[in-house]
Every structure is written in C-alpha cells, then in structure tokens.
Design brief:
Radius of gyration: 22 Å
Bound molecules: 6-O-phosphono-beta-D-fructofuranose
Strand content: 15-25%
Number of domains: 2
Number of helices: 11
CATH architecture of the largest domain: 3-Layer(aba) Sandwich
Strand order of the largest sheet: 3-2-1-4-5-10-11
Largest sheet: 7 strands, mixed
CATH class of the largest domain: Alpha Beta
Structural class: alpha/beta
Order of helices and strands: EHEHEHEHEHEHEHEHEHEEHH
Length: about 325
C-alpha cells in the first residue's frame, strides 16, 4: 500500500501548478496518504529538500502563479549515479510514490527513474508550451494564451495608430501551440511556427506587403522556435525590403509564464491533481494523467516522451483565412 508520496515541480513554472499541488495534498489526505513536497525539482530530490505538506499548509495558494515548491532544470539527473542518490533519499524518507509536474524534459527523467528503481510514478503535464503528446491540455497554457492576448491587444493599438508592422515573439520552445492559439484570438494577420518551415524570406516579405496594402498595419505572431532564427534579424530584413514602412519587434518573454491562473487552469489543475492520486494508489510505474476531449485519461509516460504532439492544423488554417481578407 502507498503510505507516503512525494510531489515535485520541474522545468518552467506554469500558472496552475499551485492549484494542482493543493489538490494532490488534499486528495491524498482523504486517502490517508502523507505528502512530502520536494523543493527545487529533481535537484531537491538529490539534496533531500523535503518538506511535509499538510492539508492546511496548502491553504490560499489556488490563485497563485509560479510554484510554492520552486522549480529547476537539473542536468545531474541525466546521470545514473545521481539518480541512485535520489532513490536512496526517497527510501530514507519512506516515500513510496512520486507525482511529477513538468514538461517533456521532466517526463524523460521521470520515465527513466520510475523504471530503473521500480517506483510508482504519475506525471502531470505542466507547461505553458502545451506540447505533451496524449493530452489536449497542459497546466498553464490557457493563462499564458490570455497573457499573450492582453499584450498583443495593447501592441495592436500602437500598430494601428502608427500604421506599423509588428513581429511579436512568443514562447513555446519547438512548438507552435501557444502561437496558433494566441494568433487566432488576437486576429494576428500572420502566425509563424516551428512546425511549418519558411523556405523563402522574400515570399514572406511579399505576403506582408500584400496584407499591409489592405490593412495598413500587420501583427505577426512569431513562435520562438521558428526556423527563421532570431526575430530581430528577421525584423531588420523585412525593414530593409519595406523602406516606406515602420517594422518593429517585441519579445514578450517570461511575462508569459507568470500571473494568477485563469479559471480553466485552476479547475483542470485541481482535476488532474485529484486524478493523479487515484492513479498513484494503483502503484503503476510511469503513468501520465491528461485531458482529452474534456475527459480525464491515463496513459503510459513512454508515449508522451516518444511522440510529438501535432499542432491543430484546422485552427491554423482557419486563422489564416479569417484573420485576413
Ligand atoms: O518550456 C517552457 C518555456 O517557457 C519555453 O516556452 C521556453 O522556451 C523556456 O521555457 C524558457 O526557459 P527558461 O525560463 O529556462 O529560460
């Protein structure tokens, strides 16, 4: 029987992580399972940064951004000798199951660790990138889209008042989910994503010119992983080719990861947290809980690290059509 579990948050923080931690702690309490918070992600597992989490200790955090457990990207955990230390630390603390909140990098470590030392483990997709295969939803995505929308709407005021062309760089690492959703919701005239290579810069310039003639200002959502490279260089190139226009760029950066979680991120985080406890009780190795078509699902963690989540092609195509005329 599982008597004590550990929770850790790993990789980039995401709004909703705290709502999820709260849900795990309270659901575990209902099942007479003790919960230990492991601070600083996998690094904390190596250094035994353990704190006891009681149902009262997670009061007043459902609305808070970031993660009360702190987070980290831990290079050492890629080596077996360090994972062995982590395992011994877990044993010493009598932790017999782990719940990991993170993205694909964190899941890779979780998968190896769970199988290597036969530890029951459940992963919860938590990344604003929303790029985890097997789940439509990942903690933090919706709040990040909202933050991007708020920023782009503001830039749009300047873009249209000055009749400017704006490249707006958004996060997402190697995926364009954030860019596509934000692009649709803000009416961006163009969305450039890593999944679709731009082979010819001049044809891009031609496209921008065509839109600019009609609309007099252009918003281009530029996913950071785009094949074209740094947004400042692209902006300069386009400016040179469009001498009579004013071309600017804006990098939204880490503002996209912060802030109080929106309704969907609070509710889904709570559901996923609750569900992860139901799963850990079964003592399975390396599972992941997720949401598909608004239903909670469980899948092998292996799938989520082996496969790449596809972009929503329909949304991308429809966005291109309806955001232009
Ligand atoms: O994975 C989440 C993410 O915010 C990516 O979108 C981005 O590329 C990366 O993390 C930034 O990481 P860091 O905060 O370590 O610079």
């Amino acid at each position: 029987m599982i008597k004590k579990i550990g929770i850790l948050t790993s990789g980039g923080d995401a709004p909703g992580m705290n709502a999820c931690i709260r849900s795990i702690v309270r659901a575990a309490h209902k099942n007479n399972i003790k919960v230990v918070g492991i601070e600083y992600g996998y690094k904390g597992l190596l250094n035994s940064n353990f704190i006891n989490l009681s149902p009262e200790s997670v009061t007043n955090i459902v609305h808070k951004g970031g993660t009360i457990l702190k987070t980290n990207r831990c290079e050492e955990f890629k080596q077996k000798k360090y994972r062995k230390i982590a395992y011994n630390n877990l044993r010493n603390e009598n932790i017999d199951g782990l719940i990991i909140l993170g993205g694909d990098g964190s899941f890779k470590g979780a998968y190896i660790f769970s199988n290597e030392f036969k530890i029951p483990l459940v992963g919860i997709p938590s990344t604003i990138d929303n790029d985890i295969y097997g789940s439509d939803y990942s903690i933090g995505f919706n709040t990040a889209v909202q933050t991007i929308m708020d920023s782009v709407d503001k830039i749009r005021d300047t873009a249209s008042s000055h009749e400017r062309i704006f490249f707006i760089e958004v996060m997402g690492r190697n995926s364009g989910h954030l860019a596509i959703h934000a692009g649709n919701a803000t009416g961006a005239e163009l969305v450039l994503i890593p999944e679709i290579n731009i082979k010819n810069l001049d044809s891009l310039v031609k496209k921008i010119k065509k839109i600019n003639i009609k609309k007099k200002s252009v918003i281009i959502i530029y996913a950071e992983g785009c094949n074209l490279g740094p947004v400042d260089k692209i902006t300069n190139y386009v400016q040179k080719k469009m001498k009579n226009s004013n071309v600017r760029y804006s990098i939204l950066g880490h503002i996209q990861r912060g802030g109080s979680p929106c309704e969907k991120d609070r509710i889904n985080s709570s559901l996923l947290g609750y569900y992860s406890v139901k799963e850990i009780i079964k003592k399975d190795k390396s599972k992941m809980v997720g949401i598909i078509n608004d239903k909670l699902i469980v899948q092998d963690l292996k799938l989520s690290i082996k496969r790449k989540k596809e972009i929503n092609k329909d949304l991308f195509k429809i966005t291109e059509i309806i955001n232009n005329y």
